[in-house]
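anyone seen this seq b4? input:
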Amino acid sequence: MLSKTQLAHIIVLFEQNYGELKPFLNYNNAFQLLIAVILSAQCTDKRVNIITEELFKLYKKPSDLADIPLELFEQQIKTCGMYHTKAKNIIKTSEILKNQFNNDVPSDFNILVNLPGIGRKSANVILGTYFGQNRFPVDTHVFRVANRIGLANSSNVENTETDLKNLIQPGLWMKIHRWLINHGRIYCTARNPKCSKCFINMYCQYYHSVL
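predicted toks r here
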């Protein structure tokens, strides 16, 4: 894994190139962010934002969604893929939030991960993005980029999260989370990464060891 000094240089370069990135998913409240996060599984943020632009005009709180027909909601989110499972999870979660949490989204990790459609990464996104908690969500981009660069050295998502949290100070977790996602989309792609053009390749273990 990289040293603290190398990490400091990478942070400076990320700051210079990406600055303060806003959340990639559009939302107006915690419930809408929760919906967007569930929809984003194996779907691009761009597609999710297209879907939610109209969706959020109709659904602003859990009780708006809790009792609607499954078939209707499926049609409204059909273009995001895996829509049948996502629709069931979102409606069931809406029912739970309406009946058990007074229409609110709880800011408790252990509660969130037990809601249908919400896993560890999704809970961390909601808590870090909306509630301002120090969280380090690890999606496929973060997992790939962090392990390629040398910020982590793990074969699974949860251990990668641990590596990142041990290396990086908590106040930077969400900021670097977004930087790594952005970097994975632009340079450090799953196939044919643009290593020769990458502005941190001088620190990247993948670049030096493989290329």
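The chain is about 60% helix and 0% strand. The domain at 30-129 is CATH 1.10.340.30 (Endonuclease III; domain 1). kinda curious what u guys think
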